[in-house]
Write a structure and sequence with these properties.
The complex is a heterodimer of chains A (815) and B (671). Chain A is built from 26 helices and 36 strands. Chain A is an alpha/beta fold. Chain A starts with 7 loop residues before the first strand and ends with a strand. Chain B is α/β, with parallel strands linked by helices and 671 residues long. Chain B folds into five domains: 63 residues, Arc Repressor Mutant, subunit A, CATH 1.10.10; 137 residues, Glutaredoxin (3-Layer(aba) Sandwich); 224 residues, Rossmann fold (3-Layer(aba) Sandwich); 82 residues, Ubiquitin-like (UB roll), CATH 3.10.20; 98 residues, de novo design (two linked rop proteins). In chain B, the strands form four sheets. In chain B, strands 2-1-3-4 form a four-stranded mixed beta sheet. A four-stranded parallel beta sheet of chain B has the order 9-8-7-10, sandwiched between helices. In chain B, strands 12-11-14-13 form a four-stranded mixed beta sheet. In chain B, helix 3 crosses helix 4. The longest helix of chain B has 21 residues. Classes of the chains: A alpha/beta (815), B alpha/beta (671). The interface between A and B is large, with 50 and 53 residues.
C-alpha cells in the first residue's frame, strides 16, 4: 500500500502540527516532517525491533508523559510528541553514553570513520565526555566471518541490523547473537562462514565499523571519495547503486534505495564485482594478431585493417556473411550503435545479444502482460518456473522472499532441485529436466499432487516469473508457462541472464528486431526509424546459434564480438568451433577472454563506470549509468569504435556522443519516445518504464502455448537428464577478474542423488564423464539429495572445467 | 558424517519434536539430548557436532542453534566434570554464607569456579538464585538440590563423591547426608536422580533411579514434615492437601480423594460452564497474577484476541531471587496446578498448553511430568476429556538457565526455540501476538493453582477472603536472617511485623532488623523505621513505592553490609540481562562494576551520584512502578536495589568511599 492510499492522521511533533499516513512509524513520520530522530537498529527496509533505544522520544499520554522508542510506535491521531524535550534528550544522551562505554573509539583507523552513524550521532546527541573509568570489553579483532567480511566485535553496538538482515531479508541466518548480557556478541558457527550472496549489505547497513568488507578495507577515507549514482548491469533487475572512486580508481559500490527495484540491497557479485574495473589485465591498446599472439597497434591501424577486411567481405559475400554477437553487457547506446552498424553499414540482420541461453527475442522485447517487480508486493500467488533466483536474479530473489514472508503471497516453484526460496514456498515441485512440458500439462489440469497449487493460481493477483530452469531445457517451455499465467491475468516477469539483455533487445540486437520494440517486418510501424536508417537489409538474420553454426561451416566472413565470450558462455553450440570457422573475428572487449584471445583484431573497450548512458531492466525500466573514472589506456566506447569503423566502410552511422545517441533513440525507436537524459535525471527518480505515456510499442507479443512434446526428451535406461545451470559465481570474465569473487565459485562437479549414483555404480568423489555438445567433460561426482532422481546437475562454466561446452538437450549418457 | 546418535536418543528427539506445534520449539529438549549424547561419547560438553545435528533436526541453521544454546547457562559449551556442583551466591544464600561455601568447594575440588578438577570429576560453579532461598545456603549437584549446607559439609560431600562416585546423583541421598535446613519439607521420597550434569528428566532420557532403593531408605531419614503455616483462621487453599497428606499429596489418587478434578467435572460435565462463564468467574474472584505483576487473571483472559489457535503457557520459570513457592506447589501438589491449567485452557479455547519449568527445577518437572501422565491416563488430558468434546495436549517444557525467561514474552520466544529475548509490548502482547504470533495466555503456577478452588467454591467465596483488592491466600517465600525461613500461605492484611516476627520467628540471634526486600529482588526495599507496622496488602505496598511482586521476602539484619547486598542483587540482574537493549545490557553491567569497585576499596566521592544518574538513564525518574528506557522491566529491576541503597543507606556507601585507599582508581578486573 503506498502512502497515497492511506488516510492521514494529524499529530504534533515538537510543537509543529504535522500530518502523516496512518500506520507510519513515528520515527519515519518525524523524519518526513523534518524532525530527525537518532537511531541505530531501525532500518526502513526491515521490521522494527526497538532494541538500541537510541530513538527514544517523549509522548504525552492520558497517564502522563512516557518515554517510548519511536521506531516501534505507529502514529496516532492527536499524538503529541517531543523529540527534543529535556527527558527525551537525557534518554538519548544516556543511550549514547551506554553505547560508547565499550566502544573502542578507534575512529582514526576505522573504515567507517567519517561516515559513521555512531560518530555523527555522538557529535549531535551525545555527552561530551565519558564517565566510564572501568576497563572496556576486549575481543580479538577483527575476525574474518567470510572471505568477504571481517567482524570487529569491539566496535559492534549490537543493533542486530546484520543478523536481522541475514535472517529476515536474505534468508541466510548464518550470523547471530551469541551469549547474552554484557557478553553478547555477533558470531558465526564454527566452520560455517557467512557465505551469503548478500553479505555486503550487512557491511553497508552496519552503523559502526564492526563489519568491514575485505575489498574496501583501508582503501580510502570517505571524504576523499567521489561519488556517482548509477545502475548495476550484472543482473537484469537494474539495481541502483552509487559508485565511489578515489584518484580515478573505483573503490566500492553502495546500494541505493530504489523502491521499485533493489530497495537498497545489492548482491555481493554486483557490489564487489567493481574490482574488475581496475584490473591490471584490462586491455589498454588495440591488438592485432601476429602468428599465435598479438602485437600492440594504434587505433588507426587496427581499424583500417578491420575495415578493409569487412569491406572485402561485404563486397565479396554480401552482408549475410557478417555477424555480431553481444551487446547485452553494455549500455543501450552501445547496443543501438551495434544494431545500427549491422543494419546500415554491414547490411546484415545477423546479430544477437543472447548466446542461445535465453528466450525468444520477440517474447522478451514485446511481451504483452509484462509485469513490474512491484507486482510482487500485491500478488497473492507467485508462480516461479525458471532458474534458481538466488543464483541468477538476486534482487528478484529478495523481493519474492519478501512477498512470501512479509506480504503473505503463496509461492509455487517448479525446478529440478532445491532453490533458495524453497523454505518460503507453499508448493514446490521437483521435476526431471526435460519433462517440463508434461509437468506443465498435468499442473494446468490440476491433476493429483498439483491440485492445491493449481487452485492457488486462480487466487489473484498472480505474478509469474518464467525462464529456463536449466540451459538444457527447451526455451519455449517458459513461453508456455507464461501463456498459462496470462490466461489467469497474471503479470509476467521474464528471466534471462546478462544485465542489459532487455536493453540490447530493445535496441534491436536480435535478428528479427529493430530499435523500439519493432520487428524487422516493420509494416510502417516505425517510420522515423526507416527515415533515419534508410534501406534495411532484406535477408532474414541468424540468431546466436545460427551464427555459430554458419561460422563453423565457414559461411561467416566477418564476426564481431561485442563483449561476448561464446567460447565459455554459449549454450547449445561449441563457441570455439564457431570462432575457428569465421573468416575474421573482431573483438571489442575489456579483457582477453577465451574468445577474444582467438580474434584477429581486439579493440579495448570502456566498461562500467567509464561511460555514461542508459540501461533497461527486465521490467523495461530505463535508468542512467554514469561515468566516474577514465578507462584504461586507449580504451574507447563501443559506439565510437563502431562509428569509426562505419566511416571506414564509407557508410557512416553518424553517432557523435552518448547523449546524442539517447536522443536519437528517443526520436526513432517508438517504445523509447520521450526517454532523454533530462527526463531520466530530473523526472524519473525510479527510472522510466517504457513505453512512456503517449509512446507506442508496435510489437505486442502474446505468449503462446507450444506443443513441446516432440522436444521433450524421454529418459532411457542408463541415461540421465542433464540440469546445466548458472551459479552466482562462475568462471565468467567479470568474476574471473574480481579477485575477491573469483575464489567463491563452487567448482566443476556432477551432482546426483546418492541413490542414482549407486544405481549406476558411482560413489561420491568418483570421476564421471558427462557428454556435452563440444565433447565430453570429466567431472567428480558429488551428492545432492535435493535433485530429482535420475537428474545430473552440472553448474555452468566453472573454473577447472576447461573443455568448451554447451548442450543441445536434456539427456545424455554416462560412460 | 561420522557423527550419529544412539537410536534411543534419535527416538527421544523425534518424540520431542512431535510434541510441539512447530519443530523449532523442540530446540531446548534436543540440546539437552545432544549434550547427554555427547557425554556418552566421552565429550564433556555440548559439541559443535551436537548443535549441528539438533539444528538439522529442527530445521534451523547451526548458527541459530548456537545462538540459543549460548544464551542459556545450562548448556555447557565448555567441558564439565561428572559432578557439576552449583553454589548459589545470590542474596539469600549470600546472607547465609554462600561465599564461604563456594570457597570451601573450590578449595576441596582443587578447581576454581567454572573449571574442572584434574580428574574430570568435579566442576564447581557459582550460580545465581536457584530457588532454595529458605534452605540457604544451597547447592545443586547435577541440578539435584542440597539445601542448608555449610563449608564443612560441602567439603565432606566432595570427598564422598570422589570416593563413592555414585552413578546416579540422588538429591534425597545427598540431602540426608550433607544437607540441613530446607526451603520447605520435601516430604515425598524421590528415588530418581541425575546421571550427569544434565537435569534428570525422563523425556530427555537423563533420569535414573538410585540403585538398591538406597534413596528411599535414606529419604526416610528426612525430618518429619511440618505443615506450611499461614495467618488467620480461614482454611488453607493451596497447601491444605500437602499439609494433611504430606507424603501422598502429589498423587492422582490422593488428589481425587480430596476433591481433585471435581472443578473440571463441573466445567465439562452437565450442565457445565461456557468458556466465557469461567472467565467471568475468575474476574469476579479478583484473582491476581502471582508471578510478579499482580494483574487480574480474568481480565487478562478477557483480552485474548479472537484469532485461533490460541495457546496457554504456564510460567513455571520461577527465578526471582528469594522466591521458591512455585517449586513447592509443583513438587508437592502438581495436580492442583494441572487442573487449573485444564480449566483455564478450556476457558480460553486452548488445545495446546505448555508448562515451562525452569531448568534448575528438574524434580518439580519430574513430579509435574508424572502427574501429567497420570492425568492423560485418567482421561483428564488428551482427546475428548471426560467424555466431552474438549481436547487438550499438555507439554512439560524444561528451561535451561535464564531468569529473563520468566518475563512472559521472553518465555514465549524461548518456547519457540529462540534466545529468550523479551519482545516489546506493544505490539507483542501475548494475548494478541504470543506464541507463534498467536493469542496466548501466560499465567503463573500459583495463579492457576487457585483456579480449581474458585471454580469449586465460587468467585464470591474467594473474593471474600482478605482485602477486596487482592483477595485469597497467597504464597509468601521468606528467607534471609529470620529464625523460620520458608513458604507461608498468607491472607493479606497482616503487618510486616506480624509476618517477620510472628510467622517467620523474628530475626536470628536476636539481632536488629535492618531492611527487607518485600516482593522479590526487583522490589524496592522496606526499612523497619518506616514500614514495619504497615500492612502487607497490595494496596499498602504499592502505596509505599514497592510491590508485592513474586511474594518473596528477604530479610536482612543489622550485620548486613547494605552496599554488598545491593551489589549482589545488581550482579544478579547484570548476569541475567538478555543483552538485546542497550540501557540494560550496558547499564546493569556498569552499575555492577561501579558497586564492585566501591566494595573493592576504589570508590570515589562522585560514585554515589554516578550510580543514581546511570540508574536514571535506565529508569527515568527513579520511581516505582518504574518508567524505563529498556524493552522490559529487568533494567529497572536492577536499578531498584541501587536506589534503595542510596535512599536508606547512603552513609554506608560514603563509609566505603572514605575507607577506600586513596591510590588512583585501579581500572578493571576480569570480566
Amino acid at each position: 500500500m503506498s502512502a497515497a492510499d492511506r488516510s492521514m492522521v494529524s499529530l504534533t511533533i515538537d510543537g509543529e502540527a504535522v500530518e502523516a499516513p496512518a500506520g507510519d512509524l513515528l520515527i519515519k513520520a518525524a523524519e518526513d516532517n523534518g524532525a530527525y530522530i537518532p537511531r541505530f537498529c531501525w532500518h526502513p527496509r526491515m521490521n522494527p525491533v526497538g532494541m538500541c533505544r537510541m530513538c527514544l522520544v517523549e509522548i504525552e499520554t492520558p497517564r502522563g508523559k512516557a518515554i517510548i522508542p519511536s521506531c516501534m510506535q505507529p502514529v496516532n491521531d492527536g499524538m503529541v510528541v517531543h523529540t527534543e524535550s529535556a527527558a527525551a534528550k537525557k534518554a538519548q544522551e544516556g543511550v549514547l553514553e551506554f553505547l560508547l562505554l565499550n566502544h573502542p573509539l578507534d575512529c582514526p583507523v576505522c573504515d567507517k570513520g567519517g561516515e559513521c552513524p555512531l560518530q555523527d550521532q555522538t557529535m549531535s546527541y551525545g555527552p561530551g565526555e565519558s564517565r566510564f573509568v572501568e576497563e572496556k570489553r576486549h575481543f580479538a579483532k577483527p575476525i574474518p566471518i567470510s572471505d568477504l567480511v571481517l567482524l570487529d566485535r569491539e566496535r559492534c553496538i549490537l543493533c542486530a541490523r546484520c543478523t536481522r538482515f541475514s535472517d529476515e531479508i536474505s534468508g541466510d541466518p548464518l550470523i547471530e547473537f551469541h551469549h547474552r548480557g554484557g557478553d553478547t556478541q555477533v558470531l558465526t558457527f564454527p566452520d560455517e562462514p557467512f557465505t551469503s550472496y548478500f553479505s555486503g549489505n550487512t557491511v553497508q547497513i552496519c552503523p559502526v565499523g564492526a563489519l568491514t568488507a575485505v575489498p574496501y578495507r583501508f582503501r580510502a577515507r570517505p571524504w576523499d571519495l567521489q561519488v556517482a549514482e548509477s545502475t548495476g548491469v550484472v543482473h537484469t533487475e537494474g539495481s541502483r547503486l552509487a559508485v565511489h572512486a578515489s584518484q580515478n580508481q573505483v573503490l566500492r559500490f553502495l546500494g541505493v534505495d530504489n523502491g521499485a527495484t533493489n530497495q537498497g540491497w545489492l548482491s555481493d557479485k554486483e557490489r564487489f564485482g567493481f574490482e574488475f574495473i581496475g584490473s591490471p589485465d584490462r586491455l589498454r591498446t588495440p591488438l592485432i594478431r601476429e602468428g599465435s599472439g598479438f602485437r600492440e597497434a594504434g587505433w588507426g591501424e587496427a581499424l583500417d585493417l578491420a575495415g578493409e577486411r569487412l569491406r572485402a567481405v561485404i563486397a565479396e559475400q554480401g552482408g549475410g556473411a557478417v555477424a555480431a554477437l553481444g551487446g547485452a553487457r553494455g549500455t543501450n547506446e552501445d547496443a543501438y550503435a551495434l544494431s545500427k552498424f549491422m543494419r546500415t553499414a554491414a547490411d546484415s540482420n545477423n546479430l544477437d545479444a543472447q548466446l542461445g541461453d535465453g528466450l525468444e527475442a520477440r517474447f522478451l522485447a514485446g511481451l504483452a502482460g509484462r509485469g513490474r517487480i512491484d507486482d510482487l508486493e500485491s500478488a497473492r500467488t507467485i508462480l516461479l518456473w525458471g532458474p534458481d533466483l538466488k543464483e541468477t536474479h538476486p534482487i528478484l530473489y529478495l523481493r519474492v522472499r519478501r512477498a512470501a514472508q512479509e506480504r503473505g503471497a503463496s509461492l509455487v516453484i517448479f525446478h529440478p532441485r532445491r532453490t533458495g526460496l524453497d523454505d518460503r514456498a507453499a508448493h514446490k515441485f521437483t521435476y526431471l529436466p526435460g519433462t517440463g512440458p508434461e509437468v506443465l500439462a498435468r499442473f494446468a489440469a490440476g491433476e493429483g499432487e498439483f491440485r492445491a497449487a493449481r487452485e492457488a493460481m486462480d487466487e489473484g493477483p498472480l505474478a509469474a516469473l518464467v525462464g529456463r530452469p536449466g540451459l538444457a531445457e527447451a526455451p519455449r517451455l517458459a513461453e508456455s508457462v507464461a501463456a498459462f499465467a496470462r490466461r489467469r491475468g497474471g503479470s509476467i516477469l521474464p528471466l534471462v541472464h546478462r544485465g542489459n539483455t532487455f536493453g540490447a533487445l530493445d535496441m534491436g540486437a536480435a535478428p528479427d528486431l529493430l530499435p523500439g520494440r519493432v520487428t524487422t517486418a516493420t509494416d510502417g510501424s516505425a517510420p522515423d526509424l526507416v527515415a533515419a536508417w534508410g534501406d534495411l537489409p532484406v535477408a532474414p538474420g541468424l540468431d546466436a546459434l545460427g551464427i555459430a553454426e554458419a561460422a563453423a561451416a565457414g559461411e561467416i566472413g566477418f564476426l564481431i564480438l561485442c563483449g561476448s565470450d561464446p567460447v565459455r558462455d554459449m549454450a547449445g553450440f561449441d563457441g570455439g568451433a564457431a570462432l575457428s570457422g569465421a573468416g575474421f573475428v573482431l573483438a571489442i572487449d575489456l579483457f582477453l577472454t577465451d574468445s577474444s584471445r582467438r580474434a584477429d583484431v581486439v579493440l579495448p573497450a570502456l566498461g562500467f563506470a567509464e561511460k555514461k548512458g542508459t540501461v533497461t531492466n527486465l521490467e523495461g525500466r530505463v535508468q542512467m549509468v554514469n561515468r566516474l573514472v577514465p578507462g584504461p589506456g586507449q580504451a574507447r566506447a563501443d559506439w565510437s569504435v563502431l562509428d569509426d569503423l562505419s566511416a571506414r566502410l564509407g557508410r557512416p552511422i553518424g553517432l557523435a556522443s552518448e547523449e546524442d545517441i539517447t536522443a536519437e533513440i528517443a526520436r526513432v525507436a517508438p517504445a523509447y519516445a520521450g526517454v532523454t537524459w533530462d527526463y531520466l535525471e530530473w523526472e524519473a527518480r525510479e527510472g522510466a518504464v517504457v513505453p512512456l505515456e503517449g509512446a507506442v510499442q508496435p510489437l505486442r507479443y502474446e505468449p503462446q502455448h507450444a506443443d513441446l512434446n516432440g522436444e521433450s526428451v524421454g529418459r532411457e535406461s542408463g541415461n540421465f537428464s542433464l540440469h546445466l545451470a548458472r551459479t552466482m559465481y562462475d568462471d565468467g570474465v567479470m568474476v574471473r577478474h574480481s579477485p575477491s569473487l573469483s575464489r567463491l565459485a563452487p567448482d566443476a562437479a556432477a551432482y546426483m542423488t546418492p541413490a542414482y549414483a549407486a544405481s549406476i555404480g558411482l560413489a561420491e568423489g568418483d570421476e564421471v564423464e558427462v557428454p556435452l555438445v563440444a565433447g565430453a567433460v570429466t567431472l567428480p561426482v558429488r551428492f545432492d539429495p535435493t535433485l530429482h532422481e535420475g537428474a545430473v546437475y552440472v553448474p555452468f562454466n566453472q573454473p577447472g572445467m576447461d573443455i568448451r561446452f554447451g548442450v543441445d538437450g536434456p539427456s545424455g549418457g554416462v560412460s | 558424517m561420522s557423527y550419529t546418535w544412539s537410536s534411543a536418543a534419535e527416538d527421544l528427539a523425534r518424540r520431542a519434536i512431535a510434541r510441539y506445534p512447530e519443530p523449532r520449539s523442540a530446540l531446548m529438549p534436543l540440546l539437552y539430548i545432544a549434550m547427554q549424547e555427547d557425554r556418552n561419547r566421552g565429550k564433556a560438553h555440548l559439541t559443535d557436532d551436537g548443535m549441528r545435528k539438533v539444528a538439522e533436526m529442527v530445521g534451523i541453521t547451526p548458527a541459530q542453534a548456537a545462538a540459543a544454546a549460548s544464551f542459556y547457562t545450562m548448556y555447557k559449551l565448555q567441558p564439565v566434570g561428572r559432578y557439576l556442583i552449583s553454589v548459589c551466591t545470590s542474596l539469600s544464600c549470600w546472607l547465609a554464607g554462600a561465599d564461604d561455601v563456594l570457597h570451601a568447594l573450590e578449595e576441596e575440588a582443587g578447581a576454581p569456579s567454572g573449571h574442572t578438577d584434574e580428574e574430570g570429576l568435579i566442576t564447581p560453579e557459582h550460580v545465581e538464585c536457584i530457588g532454595a532461598c529458605g534452605g540457604a545456603p544451597a547447592v545443586q549437584v547435577n541440578y539435584e538440590f542440597v539445601e542448608g549446607v555449610d563449608p564443612d559439609r560441602v567439603r565432606e560431600m566432595v570427598r564422598w563423591l570422589r570416593s563413592e562416585r555414585p552413578e546416579c546423583v540422588s538429591g534425597d541421598r545427598l540431602q540426608a547426608r550433607f544437607g540441613g535446613c530446607v526451603s520447605f519439607p520435601w516430604a515425598i521420597p524421590d528415588p530418581t536422580g541425575a546421571v550427569g550434569p544434565v537435569p534428570a528428566f525422563s523425556p530427555l532420557g537423563t533420569e535414573s533411579t538410585s540403585p538398591n532403593g538406597a534413596a528411599a531408605a535414606e529419604a526416610a531419614d528426612l525430618p518429619a514434615p511440618s505443615p506450611t503455616a499461614g495467618n488467620g483462621d480461614i482454611p488453607m487453599i493451596l497447601t491444605a492437601r500437602m499439609n494433611e497428606h504430606p507424603d501422598t499429596s502429589h498423587t492422582l489418587a490422593r488428589y481425587e480423594a480430596t476433591g481433585g478434578y471435581t472443578a473440571l467435572r463441573k466445567v465439562l460435565g452437565s450442565p457445565g460452564m461456557a468458556p466465557g462463564e469461567i472467565t467471568e468467574e475468575i474476574k469476579a474472584a479478583m484473582l491476581r497474577g502471582r508471578g510478579g505483576a499482580g494483574f487480574p487473571a480474568g481480565v487478562k483472559w478477557s483480552f485474548l484476541a479472537p484469532a485461533r489457535p490460541s495457546y496457554l503457557v504456564v510460567n513455571a520459570d520461577e527465578s526471582e531471587p528469594g522466591t521458591f513457592k512455585d517449586r513447592q506447589l509443583m513438587e508437592r501438589d502438581p495436580h492442583q496446578m494441572i487442573e487449573g491449567v485444564i480449566i483455564s485452557s478450556y476457558a480460553n479455547e486452548v488445545h495446546n498448553a505448555f508448562i515451562y519449568v525452569r531448568g534448575e527445577y528438574p524434580k518439580a518437572a519430574r513430579r509435574v511430568q508424572a502427574a501429567v501422565e497420570e492425568a492423560y491416563e485418567a482421561g483428564y488430558l488428551g482427546r475428548g476429556i471426560l467424555g466431552s468434546g474438549y481436547d487438550l495436549e499438555l507439554v512439560v517444557h524444561l528451561g535451561a538457565g535464564a531468569y529473563i525467561c520468566g518475563e512472559e514474552t521472553a518465555l514465549l520466544a524461548s518456547l519457540e526455540g529462540r534466545r529468550g529475548e523479551p519482545r516489546l509490548k506493544p505490539p507483542y502482547f501475548p494475548a494478541a501476538k504470543g506464541l507463534y504470533m498467536m493469542p496466548t495466555i501466560v499465567n503463573n503456577v500459583e495463579t492457576l493453582a487457585n483456579v480449581p478452588w474458585i471454580v469449586r467454591n465460587g468467585a464470591a467465596a474467594y473474593a471474600a477472603i482478605g482485602p477486596s483488592g487482592s483477595p485469597g491466600r497467597r504464597m509468601c517465600s521468606v528467607s534471609g536472617h529470620v529464625n523460620r525461613p520458608g513458604n507461608y500461605e498468607i491472607v493479606e492484611g497482616l503487618t510486616w511485623r506480624d509476618l517477620i516476627f510472628d510467622l517467620a520467628g523474628g530475626i536470628r540471634d536476636g539481632n536488629r532488623l535492618k531492611a527487607w526486600v518485600p516482593g522479590g529482588a526487583s522490589s524496592p526495599w522496606f526499612v523497619p523505621e518506616i514500614h514495619l507496622d504497615t500492612e502487607v496488602t497490595k494496596e499498602a505496598i504499592d502505596g509505599h513505592g514497592s510491590m508485592t511482586g513474586s511474594g518473596a521476602v528477604i530479610v536482612m539484619d543489622e550485620t548486613t553490609d547494605m552496599a554488598a547486598a545491593a551489589e549482589r542483587l545488581v550482579r544478579f540482574f547484570a548476569h541475567e540481562s538478555c543483552g538485546q537493549c542497550t540501557p540494560c545490557r550496558e547499564g546493569t553491567t556498569w552499575l555492577d562494576m561501579i558497586l564492585r569497585r566501591i566494595m573493592e576499596g576504589h570508590g570515589r566521592p562522585v560514585d554515589a551520584d554516578l550510580l543514581l544518574d546511570v540508574s536514571d538513564n535506565i529508569s527515568p525518574g527513579l520511581r516505582w512502578p518504574p518508567a524505563m528506557t529498556t524493552i522490559c522491566a529487568l533494567g529497572p529491576s536492577a536499578v531498584s536495589p541501587v536506589v534503595s541503597l542510596l535512599r536508606y543507606f547512603r552513609g554506608e556507601v560514603d563509609d566505603h568511599v572514605r575507607a577506600a585507599n586513596q591510590v588512583p582508581v585501579v581500572i578493571g578486573g576480569p570480566r
